[in-house]
Every structure is written in C-alpha cells, then in structure tokens.
C-alpha cells in the first residue's frame, strides 16, 4: 500500500513538472514606459504624481511591482514618484551571461536613468539590495540630491551565509501548475512571517518566471559582496529605516549604516521584518515627509 502511494506521488509530481515546462507561465504585470540608456540598455519605468521628484529602487530579486502601496502614499504627500524594473527583471533588458551582476553596475544604471529621464535632482529610496545600489551611486553623493532613504538596506557589515545560487528547487516549485502559488505563499510566509498584499506573491512568481529573471537573481546573489559598499563619504542627508525582526538583513546592519554616514538618522521599527515597503507604506511615507521637513526650512 505504501509503495503504491509513493508511486502515485512520484507520477503526480512528474506530470506536474512536465506540465510546468509546457504550460504558459502566469501573466506578468504590464510594462510602463521603456527608457533607453546611452549603452542601449532598456529600462521599464513608471512615473506618477506631481511635486518633488523621488526615485524608488527595488531589491533582489524584485521588480517595479514591489512599490504600488508606497507610490500611492508618496503621491498623496506631494511627490512625483519614479520607479522601475532593474536590469534583469520585469520588462527591462537582461544582462549577458558574462556581464557584471554587481550593485555598482546597477548604481551606474540608476545614475544614467536619472540623467536620461531628465529628473530634477530626485531624492532616492532604496530597499534591501536597492539600498546598497543607492549607497553605491554617484547620485547619492551629488550636493543637489535632497536626501536618500535606506529601507532595510544591505550594508558593508552584512555577512552572507549559506548557498547563494541554488535556484533549481525554487524554480521547479514556482513552475508547478495549480501548486505553484500555494507553494510560493507557503515559502514566503515561512521566510518572512509578515502580512503582505495578496497581489504580491502572484506578481513575484510571474516575474521570476520571465526569461532571464532567475539567472539575474542567481548572478546577483553570487556577486553580492557587502564589504564593497562604501557609504562613509556620503554627505547627503540620509534616513535609515530598519525593523528589529528583519530576517534577511539584520537590524544591526541598519544601525551600522547609520553610524557610517555622518549625520544619518535611524528610525527603528520594533517587531517589524524585512518587507516594510509592503507592510508599512504609510509609516514609511510619513517618516520620509517628516525627515524632509527637518532640513527643507533650514
């Protein structure tokens, strides 16, 4: 009897695996406005609102679809918000296999994007890996940049442990028809233990299954070297927001960043984890407005 059950389970998963490779992947979010950088790289961008410009940089893996809740909160507070798919994700260009998947490569693309779009000295907000990108960018060091915000950001003191590039099991699970979404939700719930918008899991699954996305994820994880981040020369007003229950980037990393950047302000979110732009967008938007007001009138 046990043997029959095992055989049925093996056959079932074999069939689901085959179907996962044959059937179309979940439909991904629609593209926005494609901007071409001087080197030919195409970046999928979105802009909404009127007022002071601010640019949002997503993490690893991530995409522009990480930001809708934050966008609405910032637009309501008088900002013109620009957000985008980083290279390798969503509807933006993919890197060649021998290209650099580094934070610095992403930072150079952020700087180029700001220039090509003609954004007028925007503030910068980086989440997680995106926070490392902001710290690595030339824009964060421009005297005209009003401020930067680092949300649960990676920093030079972060330690990377475990296998960085084993994506096979995750890809297999995400491709499973019917079971793909429940498995993705189960993994995310176990890993983050946070309440997230229902639309986010489905979007993440569909975007990661777009050609080249998992290769980018793997490449960025392999290339991730936090010790290469140098933030001590940043003079731009900096707001660091970090949760004490962050399982991905420990709270002490945020504390260290706030110590490295002269004059940086640290806001501690007690009992909160890593997914703060999704779980606490209103609180973050309020913090950004309050922080900006501290030096706007000076």
Could you characterize the architecture of this molecule?
The structure is a single chain. The protein is α/β, with parallel strands linked by helices. Helix content is 42%, strand content 14%. It is built from eleven helices and eight strands. Strands 1-2-4-3-5-6-7-8 form an eight-stranded mixed β-sheet, with helices on both faces. The model has no long low-confidence stretch (mean pLDDT 85).
Short descriptors:
298 residues, alpha/beta, Rossmann fold, 8-stranded mixed sheet, 11 helices
Question: What is the topological layout?
Answer:
Layout (H helix, E strand, L loop, with lengths): L1 H21 L10 E4 L5 E7 L3 E6 L10 H9 L2 E6 L18 H15 L5 E5 L1 H8 L11 E4 L16 H8 L4 H13 L5 H11 L4 H11 L14 E6 L7 H10 L4 E5 L6 H4 L1 H16 L2
Helix pairs in contact: 2-11, 3-4
**Total domains:** 1
* CATH topology category name: Rossmann fold
- Look at the structure and give the mean pLDDT: 85
What is the CATH C-level name? Alpha Beta
String of helices and strands: HEEEHEHEHEHHHHEHEHH
Tally the helices. 11
What's the story with the biggest beta sheet?
Answer: 8 strands, mixed
At CATH level 2, the architecture is 3-Layer(aba) Sandwich
| Beta-strand proportion | 5-15%
Spatial ordering of strands, largest sheet: 1-2-4-3-5-6-7-8
Structural class: alpha/beta
Which segments are poorly predicted (pLDDT under 50) over 5 or more consecutive residues?
A: none
């Amino acid at each position: 009897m046990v043997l029959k059950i095992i055989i049925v389970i093996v056959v079932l998963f074999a069939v689901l695996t085959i179907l996962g490779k044959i059937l179309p992947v979940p439909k991904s979010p629609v593209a926005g406005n494609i901007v071409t950088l001087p080197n030919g790289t195409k970046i999928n961008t979105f802009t909404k609102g009127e007022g002071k410009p601010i640019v949002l940089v997503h993490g690893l893996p991530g995409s522009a679809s990480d930001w809708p809740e934050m966008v609405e909160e910032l637009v309501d507070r008088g900002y013109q918000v620009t957000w985008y798919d980083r290279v390798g994700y969503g509807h933006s260009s993919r890197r060649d296999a021998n290209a650099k998947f580094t934070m610095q490569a992403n930072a150079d693309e952020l700087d180029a994007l700001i220039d090509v779009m003609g954004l007028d000295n925007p503030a910068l907000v980086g989440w997680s890996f995106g926070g490392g990108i902001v710290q690595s960018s030339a824009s964060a060091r421009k005297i005209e940049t009003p401020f930067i915000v680092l949300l649960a950001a990676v920093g030079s003191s972060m330690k990377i442990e475990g296998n960085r590039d084993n994506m096979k099991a995750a890809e297999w699970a995400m491709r499973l028809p019917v079971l793909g979404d429940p498995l993705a939700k189960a993994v995310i719930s176990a890993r983050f233990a946070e309440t997230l918008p229902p639309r986010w899991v489905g979007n993440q699954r569909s975007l990661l299954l777009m050609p080249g996305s998992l290769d980018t994820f793997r490449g960025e994880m392999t290339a991730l070297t936090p010790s290469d981040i140098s933030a001590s020369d940043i003079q731009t007003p900096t707001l660091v927001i970090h949760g004490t229950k962050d399982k991905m980037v420990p709270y002490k990393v945020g504390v260290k960043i706030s110590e490295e950047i002269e004059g940086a302000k640290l806001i501690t979110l007690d009992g909160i984890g890593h997914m703060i732009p999704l779980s606490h967008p209103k609180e973050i938007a309020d913090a950004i407005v309050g922080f900006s007001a501290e030096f706007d009138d000076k």
